[in-house]
Amino acid sequence: STAEALLSPLRSFGNPLQTPLVFWQGCMQRCPTLASLALELLSIPTATVTAASLLATRGASPFQKPDPIPILSHLDKPEKLDRNLLLRFNRNFIHKAY
């Protein structure tokens, strides 16, 4: 039945071997908007260091004066750098079934 088909991926959510990423990939055809949002949220890093701060300065020593890297000035939206890098990186791991 239709209800059974919609509930089947939810029943597998309790599987300890299934990651949330795999679960939401399986839901991509049934609820693409929600699954896309979940996949985007799962790509948020747990680290506190942003890509912008890593790319903003360079130097071999903390005592050395930082030398700015011009890459950030050439980006369209530098405030979305972390999000875009993670989505681009994780795109390789997400199977698109549609």
UniProtKB/TrEMBL annotation:
Any idea where the HAT C-terminal dimerisation domain is? Answer: 19-57
The Gene Ontology terms for molecular function here are:
protein dimerization activity
**Which Pfam families does its entry note?**
Dimer_Tnp_hAT
Q: What protein am I looking at?
A: HAT C-terminal dimerisation domain-containing protein
